[in-house]
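Summary of Year 1 activities. Much of the first year was spent building the evaluation harness for sequence design. The harness presents a backbone, in tokenized form, and records the residue chosen at every position. We chose the following record to illustrate the format because it has been used consistently in internal testing since the harness was completed.
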């Protein structure tokens, strides 16, 4: 397992996963994948550079986490996942299982803490914040 350097970090978007699927870890010990696939549960996409002509300023990101159509956060850790049998037939058959939702960096960091630690309190706190921000 390799670690990504800060220089490499600036040059690409970031794709986060769980320990089970990681290909490398970043400097913050987050489990990462080099490209987006169905094992990516959160992502930070470059949204542009600072207005500095030399581009020496920080890179700005938009933050996304995986959610169900009902805006519940996706829980990739099966031991904590609660089956929700309230979904209608339409939800199960016609709607996409999950999608990415843009969130503030604070909620994104809570979700990353959950992916890293599998501590369900982080997931519950992030869910509360998403529900409050609607």
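For this record, the design step produced the sequence shown next.
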């Amino acid at each position: 397992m390799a670690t990504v350097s800060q220089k490499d970090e600036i040059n690409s978007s970031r794709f986060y996963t769980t320990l089970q699927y990681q290909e490398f870890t970043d400097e913050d010990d987050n489990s990462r994948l080099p490209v987006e696939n169905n094992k990516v549960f959160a992502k930070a996409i470059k949204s542009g550079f600072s207005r500095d002509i030399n581009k020496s300023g920080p890179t700005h990101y938009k933050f996304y986490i995986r959610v169900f159509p009902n805006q519940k956060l996706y829980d990739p850790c099966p031991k904590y996942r609660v089956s929700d049998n309230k979904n209608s037939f339409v939800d199960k058959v016609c709607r996409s299982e999950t999608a990415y939702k843009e969130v503030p960096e604070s909620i994104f960091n809570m979700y990353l803490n959950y992916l890293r630690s599998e501590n369900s309190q982080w997931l519950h706190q992030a869910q509360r914040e998403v529900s409050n921000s609607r």
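The first strand starts at residue 2 and ends at 3. Quantitative recovery figures across the full test set are reported in Table 2.
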